[in-house]
Amino acid sequence: MGSWEFSAAFCVGRSRGCEVSIATSEETRTVSKRHVGIVPLTESLAATARSGCSKRRWLIYDLETMNGTAVNGEDIPSGGSKELHNGDEVVLASAMRQCVRLVVQFPDEAHSHIVVKALARSATPPPAPQHRRTATPVLGDFIAETQPDQSEENIS
Q: pLDDT tens digit string along 4-59?
């Protein structure tokens, strides 16, 4: 699987125009051409000095996908965003059985750049089996079963 490193905004999807381009296959066709954008937040030096925090923050944006995006199992609303943290698992096409899983890592404490790694592709677990109702006998079958056997009554 692949690994990509960025220090600026980038896009993930099936389009060749995305910085992280996912090859289209039967397993990945549920991922949108432009699925998510990941961008660093830039804060003013004054805000950084006030907070005492020099750690760069990164956001993931769902680009209004049909099949959804989730971070650590939590769905991001279509067009919504969420802050990323070290070790987060991102699932593209989270609403579908076939999806693509990525993990996010920050190699340095300042989060100056981000590493995105593709995890081995696998289908999400199938939904729990539904209890089937047993077939109800047809009324004619029920009547036939409750009638005495005609052949036995005619025996002399």
A: 999 999 999 999 999 999 999 998 999 999 999 999 997 655 555 566 667 899 99
> How far, rounded to the nearest angstrom, does the alpha carbon of residue 53 sit from its chain's CA centroid?
32
Q: Pairing state of beta strands 20-21 and 10-13?
A: parallel
CATH topology of domain 3-153: Tumour Suppressor Smad4 (2.60.200)
Q: Which residues on neighbouring strands pair with residue 76, listed in sequence order? A: 69
Which parts of the chain fold into alpha helices (H)? 45-51, 139-146, 150-153
Query: Whole-model pTM above 0.85?
Result: no
Q: Which two tokens stand for residue 55?
A: 């750690």
User: Could you write out the three-class secondary structure of 63-95?
Assistant: CCCCCCEEECCEEECCCCEEEECCCCEEEECCC
d(CA 120, CA 1): 6
Computed on alpha carbons and rounded to an integer, the radius of gyration of the chain in Å comes to 28
CA distances from 124 to 51, 80, 150 (A): 41, 23, 57
Contact in structure between 113 and 107 (CB atoms under 8 Å): yes
Please choose, from the candidates 103, 122, 28, the residue with its C-alpha nearest in 3D space to the C-alpha of residue 60. Answer: 103
